[in-house]
Structure formats: C-alpha cells, structure tokens
Design a protein that fits this description.
Elements (H helix, E strand, L loop, with lengths): L9 H29 L9 H22 L3 H25 L8 H21 L5
Length: 131
C-alpha cells in the first residue's frame, strides 16, 4: 500500500490494538448480559436474524479482541468485518425498524466512532501484525 505505513511506531500499534480489544470486550459484555437476561431473542422488536447476529457477537467480539491482543492479523480482519456488519445492522435497526435517526441514538453514534477507529487504523496495524 503506502510506504509510510511501515513506519507506524510499535507503541502506536500496541495502543490501537489495546483500545480496540478493550472496546470489543465491552461490546461482548453487553451482548453476553443481554443473552443472560433475555435469552437468544433479547430484542423482541427486532427480527430473528438480527437477534441471532447480535447474539453471535457475544462470541465474535471477544475472539477478535483476543486475536488482536495476541498480535494476529486475523484479529484486525475480524474486527473490520464485525464493525462493518454491526454498523450496517444497527443502521438498519435505527432507520428501517425504529424509524429514528442518527442524532437520536447515542449508541449508534458511539458505534460509528468505533467503526471509524477500527477501519481507519486497520491498514496501519495489519502490516505490523503476524499472520
């Protein structure tokens, strides 16, 4: 890609991986809590497939976090896939089901910021992570 990406300081890579892993663990805790409190269909207003997707994040979020903490490129790749699909699912829920908007949903605002962080830093991180 770009030569200057190779010069990303290792401390920045470690910090970015740590922040992303920490926030993925926060998401996992939220999904696990929802599962424990409400079962496999924690959001009764959402279709089954959306409930299944969000419930699957109880496993996928910590998996990506652990892979990132272990310095694996697969962790960055998985985090990108998770965040891309999660933002799409949440936008569908907010706009298509709840008929709300971005400014009325602080959760969507936070998720958007985290998605931008993950997708924006992934190219820099991947070059420093092991296969």
């Amino acid at each position: 890609m770009f030569g200057w990406m190779h010069r990303t300081p290792r401390s920045v890579v470690i910090l970015a991986c740590g922040i992303a892993a920490g926030l993925l663990f926060v998401g996992a805790i939220a999904h696990i809590t929802d599962l424990l409190r409400h079962g496999l269909r924690p959001y009764d207003w959402a279709p089954s497939w959306l409930n299944f997707y969000w419930s699957s994040l109880a496993v996928l979020d910590p998996l990506a976090a652990v892979l990132l903490l272990r310095g694996k490129r697969r962790g960055a790749n998985l985090a990108c896939v998770i965040m891309t699909t999660d933002i799409a699912a949440n936008c569908y829920a907010v706009y298509g089901i709840q008929h709300s908007d971005f400014y009325a949903q602080p959760g969507l605002q936070r998720l958007t910021a985290f998605t931008l962080l993950v997708l924006g830093t992934a190219p820099f991180l991947r070059r420093h992570l092991a296969n």
